[in-house]
Amino acid sequence: MNIERERLQEAPHGRAPWRHWGPYVSERGWGTVREDYSATGEAWDFFPHDHARSRAYRWNEDGLAGICDDRQTLCLALAFWNGRDPILKERIFGLTGPQGNHGEDAKEYWWYLDSTPTHSWMRWRYMYPQTEFPYTRLVDENAARGKVDPEFELVDTGIFDDGRYWEITADYAKATPEEILLRVTVRNMGPEAATIDVLPTLWFRNTWSWGIDDRRPAIRLENGALVAEHHVLGARRLVPSGEPAALFCENETNNERLFGVPSATPYPKDGINDHVVQGAATVNPDQTGTKAAFRYRLEVDAGASATIDLRLSDTLTGGDDFATVMTAREREADEFYGELTPAGCTEDEALVLRQALGGMLWSKQFYHYNVRRWLDGDPAGPPPPDARRGGRNHDWRHLNNMDVISMPDTWEYPWYAAWDLAFHCVALAHVDPEFAKQQLVLMCREWYMHPNGQLPAYEWAFGDVNPPVHAWAALRVHEIAADGDLDFLERVFHKLLLNFTWWVNRKDSAGNNLFEGGFLGLDNIGPFDRSALPVSGRLEQSDGTAWMAMYCQNLLELALLLAEHDRTYEDLATKFYEHFALIASALNDQGLWDDEDSFYYDVLHLGDGAVVPLKARSIVGLMPLAAVTTLGPDTMAQLPDFRARVDWFAKNLPELRDVVQHMDSPEHAGWRMLSIVDDERLRRLLGPMLDPDEFLSDHGLRALSKRHESQPLDVNVDGVMARLDYEPGESTSGLFGGNSNWRGPVWFPINFLLVETLRVYHRFLGDSFTVECPTGSGRQLNLAEVADDVSGRLVSLFLRDENGRRPVFGTYELHQNDPVWHDLIPFHEYFHAETGAGLGASHQTGWTGLVADLILRLRRSQRELALDGASE
């Protein structure tokens, strides 16, 4: 066991709090729902980027390369000034949802290059222009563009063309759980010497201005170090290299600048900014405050680098030698990932694997949101407008979150999303199974889950409905952890029983086992918003019903695992076995399957009784494939009561038998497969799924069939017209998801599920069951080989092709050709179906981080095949 694995063994048992400090500071705190106290819920406008430097955050802090303790009491992050910008660079700049022609969008370049699970070692990189940052141009140019135009990015301004920028790297290493070393390296990439101000900044999250707890912490200068004292955290010292100037202000709002009324202090939150940029007398000459920074002014020759070392500790004196610790932690990180990486991985695959997991670990953020307090207002603040009491999240008053949570994207989505999180945990389980399990349990706790059993979706609308994937994720995490942790499974299972009941009671309005749910995470997948039908009626959804069939199977599997140790769970296993059969039969028999088209569709039931199939060939119609599991003879032998009930069910309910006993496998005698589709329908669905003219692209499975490029779907329902056509890149429609587009691009979560599905079918059907892949190619593959084929396409998005180009970079030549940029991998939210270019959020190392799992599975399976061949 390597040293990092030993740290992970220590952390869960409390012997060493290695997770106490981490990269838990968001890249964006402004423009969030939490900070919005407006009457109309216009979060982007209420707290814009222009306010962020001057206005104290109520709930969460933000910063560059920031770390904090797990209650975000004390934060450490970096700020820079190139001598030309109108403000310090303290946070990432980007466009709001209304400003961007494709929704919100970060307009800078930074990467999470490395992290161990305990954050004993981390690396972050940022490219900072030496010329004035084009804030106004980015806003204006994007405002002038429409939905059919590409986004205008920072690289499009030409600001990097002559190499005048700083490459800034932050390396963190923990000497002990409470002693953290930070090395900042700035490299001048320009053709001549240049000057930069680097300001490592230490500050307390403001907890004292709201009338709840008026105890004020303080930072002071002592023997050249910043000493931060807090009534709970205790004392912390930040010791710098060299002799930088120390600047102090308060983490309090500059009311005079923002609102034209006197501020509580002459040294507000933007005091250091105004002093450095304007020379203003806005830093405290007494050298005390709640926010402080060391100011380094560095002149660096062309091509040269300068370094700054800092030590944050709870002791008066430093510990081990700085360089020794940094070297040791990086080596230990190399050993950790070296053990994780399969022997068959190429160097490029190993790079993608490590950066994907590093990004996921950097995306753990402290999230604080007390909905009751937010709705009612703080004692020291003005009462919120009355309209808010019946507005956003008003029926989630129980929700009180104050935890470190895995976020979808540290800038575009600095808030958790329940179904995203489930996918995150599958990838995270490979490096930190305890954290993955804790996250799944957390979403089911009483201060998250609604009393009625619903899981919170995301802060913009906790009551939105996301697919029920937590049971599936719990099974996968349990499998990856391989630690026999039944306590985890039991905790999750009991809470998910409540959630399953909520689904049955709330989303099967007709009581016919066909489920609704609205957009279900797929934003604009339909011709109209599935969460807000334009006509009176209900929408029976193939994906909603398939998700619930899959949910039954997942809960069945959990019950069977638990029943091996506690026979009382056999009854629940029987319940979910039978409930799956009811849902699967309804999906097949009540109009969602179109036998002529060989596809599943959503069906709209109008108020007058009319029935309208919505014949969109989208991943909605492929989702029934995902509801599949197998029952082995050993399981049946161990649980005789369950087996007896299954046998009775098959004998006495022949109308339901087809979905629980409809395929035979000569290679797996005694096994049973539960699936919505039989072998004939499986082939019929795999035909279009693996067809390059429909779903299969060079980069994975499209969310919408390419057939709709030449054959758009036009819908006319009671005079309401809607159109669905194939859009392989950014959406040209403002329907629902803002900067998200499910009408053609490649998305990792559904691709990943379908890959997993193919492996389950192969586990039962064996090598003798083959299909043509790609459709029309004449090449026959078994379903495990098909899974590998699709996996390889997804992984290739990030790898160098035969010309040395990475599809994810698209047409940006700086990324494709400059060696400084070429191995810095962005993990986008989704991908252009025809080119592979990354789109949407650029740091979506949440579910796109699943590429790590794909690489691990792909290379391990290929190695196993090679070993099998050698043994023969």
What features would you highlight for this structure?
872 residues; alpha+beta; nine-stranded antiparallel beta sheet; 25 helices; 20% strand; globular; disordered C terminus
What's the quick description here?
The protein has 872 residues and is an alpha+beta fold. The protein has 25 helices and 34 strands. A hairpin with a 3-residue loop joins strand 12 (225-230) and strand 13.
Question: What's the layout of helices and strands?
Answer:
Elements: H1 3-10, E1 21-22, H2 43-46, H3 49-52, E2 64-69, E3 74-81, E4 94-95, E5 105-106, E6 110-115, E7 121-129, H4 135-143, E8 165-176, E9 179-188, E10 194-204, E11 218-222, E12 225-230, E13 234-240, E14 245-249, H5 255-259, H6 271-278, E15 288-289, E16 291-300, E17 305-313, H7 322-340, H8 347-362, E18 364-370, H9 371-376, E19 400-406, H10 418-428, H11 433-443, H12 470-481, H13 486-506, E20 537-540, H14 542-563, H15 570-589, E21 593-594, E22 599-600, E23 602-606, E24 611-614, E25 628-631, H16 633-638, H17 640-652, H18 654-657, E26 672-675, H19 679-689, E27 696-697, E28 700-701, H20 707-710, E29 713-717, E30 720-724, H21 748-765, E31 770-772, E32 780-782, H22 783-795, H23 813-817, H24 819-822, E33 830-831, E34 838-839, H25 851-871
Antiparallel strand pairs: 1-2, 2-3, 3-10, 4-5, 6-7, 7-8, 8-9, 9-17, 10-16, 11-12, 11-15, 12-13, 13-17, 14-16, 18-19, 20-23, 21-22, 23-24, 25-26, 27-28, 29-30, 31-32, 33-34
Helix pairs in contact: 8-25, 10-11, 10-12, 11-12, 12-13, 13-14, 14-15, 15-17, 21-22, 22-25
